[in-house]
Write a structure and sequence with these properties.
The complex is a heterodimer. Chain A is mainly beta. In chain A, 0% of the residues lie in helices and 43% in strands. Chain B has strands at 3-7, 11-12, 18-25, 35-40, 47-53, 57-60, 68-73, 78-83, 92-99, 108-111, 115-119. In chain B, the strands form two sheets. In chain B, strands 2, 4, 5, 6, 9, 10 and 11 form a seven-stranded mixed sheet that branches. Chain B has a four-stranded antiparallel sheet with strand order 1-3-8-7, with no helix packed on it. In chain B, strand 9 and strand 10 (108-111) form a beta hairpin. The chains are: A mainly beta, B mainly beta. The A-B interface holds A 2, 34, 36, 38, 45-48, 51-52, 57, 89, 91-93, 97-105 and B 45-48, 51, 59, 61-62, 95, 100, 104-109, 111-114.
Chain lengths: 111, 121
């Protein structure tokens, strides 16, 4: 069982917006602004999309945005495109004996 | 351009030790970054294994800590992972990775392509 909880799957039509949630505790998501989001296409390494809750690395589309409220972080993808179909993982720094924890992943299907 | 490249045997026998190396190019292993090992079992999610900053500190996943050793070779600019007493549950795609900025140890921006390790007799 993953330390952070994500929905197993979400879907949306091209052009729509979707949001993926990532729920943790006050020891990780809720306690620190070190939430990251990764996109992973089949057979590829994960790609950092968001870090420190809402920052985008250079080259990442502004269609991707991150936020946090309490112990739940969210990734929103607006203007869905076919190429957004992938697995998405959240992660967070944690003050527990582990440095970083991941969510179980969410499969995004673009209908 | 910075790159990471994992290497190691693709097949390891149960109870033996898995050994992998991550070659770093375009950056120094002695820099202020925390370098990491992360794995992904087939069809499953990501699992953090360990992170370290050379000569400063090392963090381990508690579930693996008793079996994991991370080492650095600054002359070759690479770092290594050893996982002892492996079982089928250690079968996974193993990645090395580096955070986006030194100040964050946990936002992994640079990734190797991954190396698949199967534990089987």
């Amino acid at each position: 069982q993953s330390a952070l909880t994500q929905p197993a799957s979400v879907s949306g039509s091209p052009g729509q917006s979707i949001t993926i949630s990532c729920t943790g505790t006050t020891s990780d998501v809720g306690g620190y602004n070190y939430v990251s989001w990764y996109q992973q296409h089949p057979g590829k390494a994960p790609k950092l999309m968001i870090y420190e809750v809402s920052n985008r690395p250079s080259g990442i589309s502004n269609r991707f945005s991150g936020s946090k409220s309490g112990n739940t972080a969210s990734l929103t993808i607006s203007g869905l495109q076919a190429e957004d179909e992938a697995d998405y993982y959240c992660s967070s720094y944690t003050s527990s004996s582990t440095l970083v924890v991941f969510g179980g992943g969410t499969k995004l299907t673009v209908l | 351009q910075e790159q990471l490249q994992e290497s190691g045997p693709g097949l390891v026998k149960p109870s033996e030790t898995l050994s992998l190396t991550c070659a770093v190019s375009g950056s120094s292993i002695s820099s202020a970054y925390y370098w990491a090992w992360i794995r992904q079992p087939p069809g499953k999610g990501l699992e953090w294994i360990a992170s370290f900053r050379h000569s400063v500190s090392t963090y381990y996943n508690p579930s693996l800590k008793s079996r994991v050793t991370v080492s650095v070779d600054t002359s070759e600019n690479h770092f290594s992972l050893k996982l002892s007493s492996v079982t089928a549950a250690d079968t996974a795609l193993y990645y090395c990775a580096r955070p986006i900025v030194p100040s964050t140890r946990v936002a992994f921006h640079i990734w190797g392509q991954g190396t698949m390790v199967t534990v089987s007799s």
